[in-house]
Amino acid sequence: MDRETQISVASLHLIGVGELHKHWGWFVGLSIQLVVLGMMALGSSVVMTLATMVFVGWLMIGGGVVPAVYALTCKGWSGFFLDLLCNRWSLVMLGLAAKNLPTSEGKA
């Protein structure tokens, strides 16, 4: 290894230190906000569980709908029907997962 490479590898941890010093207040504020939100999440685990379920559900919907729309825009592609079939299968699995969600009575 030559001298320039050794110096640049040895000083990698210093990249961005100037920006960190310039915006340290934002990092402190974000840290305080994350601690407060974490304590609120620990205090209301039922609400956070429901919020997480809704968020993951929307991710699943997006994971089925967006690729299906994309497949419709690529009609000239030779694997169009395979792509469309896979996305429809994803939407079917999403529907089955939504149908089998546990209810407040404890029955699925």
Summed up:
This protein is mostly helical. Helix content is about 75%, strand content about 0%. Helix 4 packs antiparallel against helix 5.
Notes on the protein architecture:
This protein has five helices and no strands. It is mainly alpha-helical and 108 residues long. It has two domains: 1-43, no CATH class; 45-108. Helix 4 (45-73) runs antiparallel to helix 5. It is flat. The termini are far apart.
Features:
single chain; 2 domains; mainly alpha
Oligomer: single chain
Q: Quick one: biggest sheet?
A: none
> How big is the Rg?
24 Å
H-E order: HHHHH
In which range does the helix fraction lie? over 70%
* Low-pLDDT runs: none
Percent of residues in β-strands = under 5%
For the record, the count of structural domains works out to 2
What distance lies between the first and last C-alpha atoms, to the nearest angstrom? 63 Å
Tally of strands: 0
Helix-strand category: mainly alpha
Give the overall shape: flat
Average pLDDT confidence is 78
Q: Helical region count?
A: 5
Task: Please specify the SSE layout and strand pairing.
Blueprint: H1 3-10, H2 17-22, H3 24-43, H4 45-73, H5 80-99
Helix pairs in contact: 4-5
